[in-house]
Design a protein that fits this description.
The chain is mainly beta and 183 residues long. The chain has two domains: 48 residues, Membrane-bound Lytic Murein Transglycosylase D, Chain A; 121 residues, Jelly Rolls (Sandwich). The chain has two helices and 13 strands. Strand 9 and strand 10 form a beta hairpin. Helix 1 packs across helix 2.
Amino acid sequence: MARKYTVVAGDTLFKIAQHWYGDGSLFPLIANANGITNPNALSVGQVLSILDLPQHSDLFRTGGEMIDVSIGRCILPDQVPGGRRLVIETVTGFYFSDGGVLGAALLSSGDPRHIVHAFPWVQSGSLTNTGSDRRFYGFNHLVRLYVDGPATLQFDADGAAGGVGDPSGGYSVSGFLEALPPA
């Protein structure tokens, strides 16, 4: 059910979304519902439709192991379906190596030249006290990223160096699917 809100002096879409939804980053919901292409161009007295938040019953979770550890590559098994938008809320990565290191994890939607976001690794040190150089790297980021379907999610590392033995790692993504906004 849509509610109506009249813009007053000092309003921004971020402030309005914060008031109505408790999260200012949801301002694109208000912009899209009102055909606003420039979120900085509000007029005092403008009447906005404030839609209810979508119910996220269409959760999306996928994860997988690196298929080419030397470049940190992982193609996640579940695809974003056509006509849907994936709203990514959490991205997690882990990597074990004997002395090696990976560059930032680059998330792309199927074409490594079109990067959606880069995630830095955090080294947690050696896992053992046996004198080996086994290292653990990881990250867990809360984000709000959008990927329009159809799309395949893929991770690659921005470079790698050193390392011996049997490195391993993987990634996971979670969020929800929603309908693509009208073009």
